[in-house]
Amino acid sequence: MDKQRNKQIHEQSMRFLEDNPRYKYILNGFYDWMGSKTEETKYKYITISNTFLEYCNKKSSELYAFDYDLFLSRYRSYSVSYQQHIYAALSNLSSYLLAVKIADKDYLLELKNHKQRQIEISNDSEAVRGLTDEQMQLLLNNVRSRYQNSELSYIEKAMIQRDELIILFFLFTGIRRRQILRMNVEDIGYENGHMIARAIRRSTGIIECEYIVTEEAEALLQSYIEFREAFVQDSSTSELFITEQKKRLSAAGLDYIVKQYGEGIGKISVTELRETYLRRLYKCKRHIIYEKERTR
């Protein structure tokens, strides 16, 4: 009885391939490659794979992770068991395309690994260090709301501008503590239309790193430099970030600046701000491979 049933399903598979000639060559090879799987499973997998290939409407050598993701997204409202069935068929197809060198990698496996990494990033408290996006916004709002105090003097407001600049530098460039403390006015310049902040090792004059100043920080930095020049009135003093006593900002002063704006967030450190940048960069990098495939 089972042999008769298998024979009938096999004949059904062959008729299906004859009736769908566009991808017959690929699917016929896929059918043979599945080897010891049951005839029923083979039939289901080639029919699902044909639907997938017709949906993508491209050569099998041009399929990427995004194609699999887009197709699978059509079934998100279906039962979990049916989604797993669709996934199993495409997983075998993706493995087959790699095995016969039609594809240069198993794109469905890559998609699975990418999504798993995103789950790990979201759930792993050690991987997600620094501030959340909501905490970042709250921190900046804390700084800006203090600037709105009408009772502050011109100098006090300029110092708050300085504080916001420092925080923006940490959040959006990942600059190191010693680099920001050593920075001078002449280290700010332009290159290819972008404002650049250069971190220079003073003992050798070698540029350690160049940071692109964000548009948000550029106008603020220009305004602060204008204030600083009028406030200091001494061309021999070049420190970029100064105190109300016209001295270079110290490490202790830097720590105090960051901590004083932590209302509603908790204790904030310079390290935590820099880790916020690194966290965002890490998450971004996890998307790069997938986004490259999605936009090819």
Summarize the model shown:
The protein has 296 residues and is mainly α.
SSE map:
Blueprint (H helix, E strand, L loop, with lengths): L1 H18 L4 H10 L5 H18 L8 H9 L6 H20 L7 H17 L9 H15 L6 H20 L3 H6 L5 E4 L2 E8 L4 E7 L2 H18 L18 H9 L10 H25 L2
Antiparallel strand pairs: 1-2, 2-3
Helix pairs in contact: 1-3, 2-3, 3-5, 4-6, 6-12, 7-8, 8-10, 8-12
Structure description:
With 296 residues, the protein is mainly alpha-helical. It folds into two domains: 2-123, no CATH class; 133-282, hpI Integrase, Chain A (Orthogonal Bundle). Helices cover 62% and strands 6% of the residues. The chain contains twelve helices and three strands; from the N terminus they run αααααααααβββααα. The protein has a three-stranded antiparallel β-sheet. Strand 1 and strand 2 (194-201) form a beta hairpin. Helix 3 packs across helix 5 (80-99), helix 4 (65-73) packs across helix 6 and helix 7 (133-147) packs antiparallel against helix 8 (154-173). The radius of gyration is 30 Å and the shape is elongated.
